[in-house]
Amino acid sequence: MASKKTRQERILYPLDWLEERSGMVGAIRYFLFRNVPGDINWFETLGSATLTAFIVQAVTGVILAMYYQPGPTTAYSSIQSITNDLWGGWLVRGMHKWGASVFIILMFLHMGRVFLFGAYKYPRELNWIIGVLLLASGLAEGFTGYLLPWDQTSYWATVVGINLNGTAPFLGPFIAQFLQGGTYINSTTISRFYSIHMLILPATIGGLIALHLYLVIRLGVTSPPWSKEAAGNGPLPQEPSTNGSGPAARPAEEPARG
Amino acid sequence: VIVVASDLEPSREHPHVPGPSLWPVGFAVGVVVLLVGFVVSWAIVAIGVFITVFFAFLWLRDLTRNSELTQKPEKVKPEKRPPRASAPVPRAKREHQAGERYPRNVFLEASTLGLGAVIGGLVTLPVLGFTIGPAFLKQGVRHTDLGPIGDYPEGMYIVTTFTSSAEGDVSRRTAFIRNNGFLGNQPSFTVISNHCAHLGCPVQPNGEIKFKEVTKYQDVTKLPVNPSGFGCPCHGGQYDTEGNRTAGPPVRALDRYSFSIVNGHLMVGKPFSVSKVVGTGAGAKIYSTTLAFPGEWVTGPESWLYPIQPPH
User: Is A174's Cβ below 8 Å from some Cβ in B?
Assistant: First the structure.
């Protein structure tokens, strides 16, 4: 029985062990190896590019948070120290700073692609709405992150931004006062922006991305408008279910493993 | 409702694409003639309008010829299904015995959800309150000592910077202070805030600041200036020497600080907003309101957009 295993089976045993207990391998295969339309276009990689940009922002942001000290007297000097004194700090801060623009630009390009390909139409309207929420959260990330270097540009840009919020009808004054934590920018404004920037908004964006991808997987990818095929209409890949049926049940298309 | 995969996007399978047409060319020529006419003469504009409308009509007629919009909908016979053999048993009847008016599983379900909601609320409400509350409560204003009134020569503006709370430099404010002499036997001061009434940028005096004549009192810095008005570097708002808007995007006059004189020292207190100032110096009439954020109207119909101000 066990002794008759081939070498390949023995090498892949950890994966089988994991699959038998969690179904994770099958789930990841289902996620990564989906059928897409044959005439898919390079423009349809913009969504993945945006996701990659967000991951870069998240990773570099976590590293910057180890050195950055929010506070009116410490923020600017800690940024100076990250940029000039710490080894490689200039690179990570630069990735985060320029990556922010890349993220925003890619979001807009991705949105333009979805619009021009008509990929927002039935049954994908809900994914467009989630995308709009993602765009708003991304722009809010840009707004809250801009204050954190605490230099003259960021300070006065934030003053103007907060007061723009303040001119919204009825609730505007309350939004402005909530954003800066008082009548004027004060010592809690920067830590409040930092908390929103690195905890609330990234968690929101992460959750929305999960919903976004769930709907992409559920509904499939649209083919370009010039496509001859009716995209996303084909049957889902016919793989035998691997849930709970043990390591013997492998996808049928890969007999070479056994 | 079960959606079958082949039901998706029926428009992709039978797209309505209008046939090729030459009329857009004539339409474009008409637009060009119209634009040329604007430069040359009104007669040519009229010719351009005629050509544009004529070809637009032909083009639209082409487009709508085979459109679904112009076709009558097919008459479809209403579908009739035979009635079901047996009606499904209602849930409530299935799960408990007859005569039991309030079954136990319904009670347990409701109490679990209710208790969960109570516990969740007990945790969430104080946290939400702490998130929002501090920004709107205890916005007290400290009265800041700006030095003896003798430091403020009559008729001269002094650019005064001071820290307005114990937080230090982050609370540093700037006011343009002018001693107006006496009104009756009361000393009169004009204390204008430097927050632009457009979006809050720091307004600058239009005139040479005499940096060499700087004086200090504790952590208050005073620079004399004799400005012709005030201007904002961000978006170009301009004000006269009383703080009235004279040009640019601001929606009202510059904010002011209330002041008091204690033991011969000038103290600034709560800031307030000003819609306009009539007159100058000690005799000026100041139309004041409670403090509003920059960019908010304080008079006129636009001010109805901001009926309630948070406590400042």
Answer: yes
